[in-house]
Amino acid sequence: MDLLEEYRRATFFFESGDPLGASKLLEPIVEAEPHNTAVRQLLARAYFNSAQLKRAETQLRALVEHDPSDHYAHHVLGRTLERDGRFREALPHLRLAAAMKQQPEYSEAVHRVEQWLGKSETA
Fold first, then answer.
1. Which of 1, 31, 35, 50 satisfies CB 3.0 to 4.6 Å to 20 for a cystine?
2. Domain ranges within the chain, ordered by starting residue
3. Which of 4-37 are b and which e, b meaning 16 or more Cβ less than 10 Å from the residue's Cβ?
4. pTM of the full structure
5. What is an example of a Pfam family matching this protein (predicted)?
């Protein structure tokens, strides 16, 4: 198997709106190259976009463990936990990403989860 060609195919699938197809192509690449963060990140995003949240979480936790300063991995992990309804677990990752890199998307996610948690605690 030509891993680079498979990665290119997976990227095409992902960008064409087929995250499930992309994940099927990426899984054996991650197995063959477990330390390739670009492949693992794309696999995590493919899982997230196809609502395979537990699988996305697993990949993202591996990325964060490998590089705790990866703001994007923290953000997507936070978004994955948020999407799974695990707001308290999501917030630290979202805050950390926002502190590491000033991006509107990061700040908006923090605000959204803080708002949700504030509303749930007063309900």
1. 50
2. 1-53, 68-123
3. eebbeebbebbeeebbebbbebbbebbeeeeeee
4. 0.92
5. TPR_19
